[in-house]
Design brief:
By secondary structure, the protein is an all-beta fold. About 0% of the residues lie in helices and about 50% in strands. Strands 1-6-2-3-4-5 form a six-stranded antiparallel beta sheet, with no helix packed on it. About 10% of the residues are buried.
């Protein structure tokens, strides 16, 4: 029920939160780039334990960075 404001940016800085679309499914994760091995890691910082998602050219995954998260607007019902 929250709202997320994003800035369209296909090349956000390392460590920023992004909206990514992986195989048609959108998610919000922290972006980490490993230049030595040329892959991206999408890190979940949820209260639930989710493993990182690793993306590189070899995976064959349909991957798109839709934008960088600028702000999260919490709705009143989510404060309870």
């Amino acid at each position: 029920g929250d709202y997320v404001i994003i800035k369209q940016n296909s090349q956000p800085a390392d460590g920023k939160y992004v909206v990514s679309v992986i195989d048609g499914m959108a998610n919000i994760k922290r972006l980490k780039f490993n230049p030595q091995e040329d892959y991206y890691a999408l890190i979940s910082e949820s209260t639930e334990d989710h493993p990182p998602i690793f993306i590189d050219e070899q995976t064959g995954t349909d991957f798109l960075i839709s934008g960088e998260v600028v702000q999260v607007i919490k709705t009143p019902s989510n404060y309870e």
